[in-house]
């Protein structure tokens, strides 16, 4: 395997890792938003009764 090929492989792996991290962050943000929305809805329902 040449140096250039190894470099390209490294870059490819690094890019995949960064994409995974971004996906995990998006998922975390989505979970936080969902739980906040649920809390607000719960409070609103309790306030009505």
Q: What does this protein look like?
A:
This protein has one helix at 3-48. The chain is mainly α and 49 residues long. The longest helix is centred in the middle third of the chain and has 46 residues, at 3-48. The mean pLDDT is 95.
Summarize the helices and strands and which ones pair or pack.
Elements: H1 3-48
Short summary of the structure?
The chain has one helix spanning 3-48. It has 49 residues and is mainly α.
Strand fraction: under 5%
Mean pLDDT: 95
Shape: rod-shaped
Class derived from helix and strand content: mainly alpha
Parts with pLDDT < 50 across at least 5 consecutive residues: none
Task: Please tally the β strands and state the result.
Answer: 0
Features:
single chain; 49 residues; mainly alpha; rod-shaped
